[in-house]
Write a structure and sequence with these properties.
NADP-dependent oxidoreductase domain-containing protein, two-stranded antiparallel ribbon, alpha/beta, single chain, TIM Barrel, 270 residues
Length: 270
């Protein structure tokens, strides 16, 4: 990290200046969360995480990205503990978090939500996931409490929700911005057409539009990036890459090794 130069850039068309790189916090929180019985824990608890986050801060990184589902909320709590422990002025740090997934509690707190999809439709969680107005409002209140803050700098929808009308989702996000609980909104991990549709709905109604899109940067599978580039470029939306290398290759992916990707220039304008 010490060799990585840190700079500050405007996020999309907004005036918000974020650091490059941004520090991700998915691997900080509850070590039992999604732990593999054979491989062991991959998430670091607060004791190990805080010095790492402090090193990033001292290096110049001012932007930290997490999500409500990471460690079922513990990642957000660790970030809040980091801010409190090192007396970091709230106005100097940029907090980005996400909504959509189910934050499991009680006996389920060590489980990853995608491993128990039936819980999402149970009485306890039925309105605690997705992008309905109810789910978004419930999610933001939970994140504000765990982060111990009165506002979130960048609030991102973690996935698309085909079961909820796009108008409902975008109006809810707009209302959060108007309320001051959220300052900017972004999106993550969805198809290009889904992202474009949501932004178009916001523009048509005069609501708050996305300033960022966090998509996957995959060394072999480039299709989504190829399709997304013109959309984010033309609309001056910042792309935040959520991975830089691929894991174990599938048979389908291996074939791309024999067919080198030919990059094409993409032009955008502010």
């Amino acid at each position: 990290m010490s060799a990585t130069p840190v700079k500050y850039v405007q996020l999309g068309k907004s005036g918000l200046r974020v650091s490059v790189p941004i520090a991700g916090a998915m691997s900080y929180g509850n070590p039992k969360w999604g732990a593999d019985p054979e491989a062991g824990a991959w998430v670091k608890g607060a004791e190990e995480a805080l010095p790492i986050l402090k090193t990033a801060w001292d290096r110049g990184i001012n932007t930290f990205d997490t999500a409500n589902v990471y460690s079922n909320g513990e990642s957000e709590r660790v970030l809040a503990q980091f801010i409190e422990t090192y007396n970091i002025p709230r106005e100097e740090i940029i907090i980005a978090t996400k909504c959509h997934g189910t934050v499991l509690k009680g006996e389920h707190k060590d489980a990853v939500p995608w491993a128990a999809p039936q819980l999402a439709r149970s009485k306890q969680y039925v309105n605690q996931n997705g992008l309905s107005r109810a789910a978004i409002f419930n999610a933001v209140e939970g994140s504000l409490e765990r982060l111990n803050t009165s506002y979130i700098d960048l609030y991102q929808i973690h996935r698309a929700d085909p079961s909820t009308p796009p108008e409902e989702t975008m109006k809810a996000l707009h209302d959060l911005v108007q309320s001051g609980k959220v300052r900017y909104i972004g999106a993550s991990s969805m198809r290009t057409w889904q992202f474009a549709l949501l932004n178009e709905v916001a523009e048509k109604n005069g609501w708050t539009k996305f300033v960022s899109m966090q998509d996957e940067y995959h060394l072999l599978y480039r299709e989504e990036r190829r399709v997304t580039s013109p959309i984010v470029g033309i609309n001056s939306i910042d792309r935040v890459d959520d991975s830089i290398v691929t894991g174990e290759l599938t048979d389908e992916e291996v074939k791309y090794l024999e067919e080198p990707y030919q990059p094409k220039a993409v032009r955008g304008h502010a």
